[in-house]
Amino acid sequence: HDGDRLAHLSDDALSVSELRARAANLFFKQTIDGWKKGYAALERAVALSPNDGMSLAMRAQNRLNWWSVGYEPHDPELAERLAHDLDIAVAEIPKSDFVYWARGAHRLRMLGDLEAARFDMAKSLELNPNFLGIADLKSQIAMLEHRFDDAISAFDNYTRLGSEDPFKLTRLAFFARVHLCAGDFQAALRDA
Predict the structure, then answer these.
(1) How far apart are CA 70 and CA 141, in angstroms?
(2) For 54-100, how does the pLDDT look when each residue is reduced to its tens digit (9 = 90+)?
(3) I want to staple 13 with a disulfide (CB 3.0 to 4.6 A). Which of 4, 9, 17, 124 is the partner?
(4) What is 25-93 written as a DSSP string?
(5) CA distances, 135 to each of 22, 92, 113, 117, 120 (Å)
(6) How far apart are alpha carbons 10 and 28 in whole angstroms?
(7) Diameter of the chain by CA atoms?
(8) What whole-number distance in Å separates Cα of residue 103 and Cα of residue 29?
(9) 146: alpha, beta or left, given left = phi > 0 and alpha = psi -120 to 50?
(10) What is the pTM assigned to this prediction?
(11) Which DSSP letter does residue 15 get?
């Protein structure tokens, strides 16, 4: 496992791709300490290669998640900075399902721009119909539009594709909220 091979090395000793691998490994552990260390690794990756699209997208996604879980107030400067990084990421690697998904998540969650999020979701889906994040993004859009049956249907695709997803707990909590909004209290209780 590549992450294990690099575990004893400091961030300063790693290449951009190794820093991204470290950040992903730490992020998937789903701990606050892991997220902080992963963000530091991505900061170093961007310092080494300021236009590296994947590093920019991963750093933006990490920061967006911090913003979300911390229930931080809207910050126009942060929103603009993340949008800038994600636009560069899309320009640098336009064949990446992840960068479109990350930009779509930013546009949806931080900007509330459903049409732009829908565009990025479609691009990500075009590149990889099985990308797990799409089911999550599609479900969130449908819920915000009060199309609860569509949100449930989109989320059913997630459960079919993502049995080993490290974000399963977070996504199931979201799914419980979808069921609550749809008035299906038994299903909400089951998913909670």
Answers:
(1) 21
(2) 999 999 999 998 898 888 899 999 999 999 999 999 999 999 999 99
(3) 9
(4) HHHHTT-HHHHHHHHHHHHHHHHH-TT-HHHHHHHHHHHHHHHHHTTPPP-HHHHHHHHHHHHHHHHH-
(5) 26, 25, 18, 13, 13
(6) 19
(7) 53
(8) 22
(9) left
(10) 0.86
(11) -
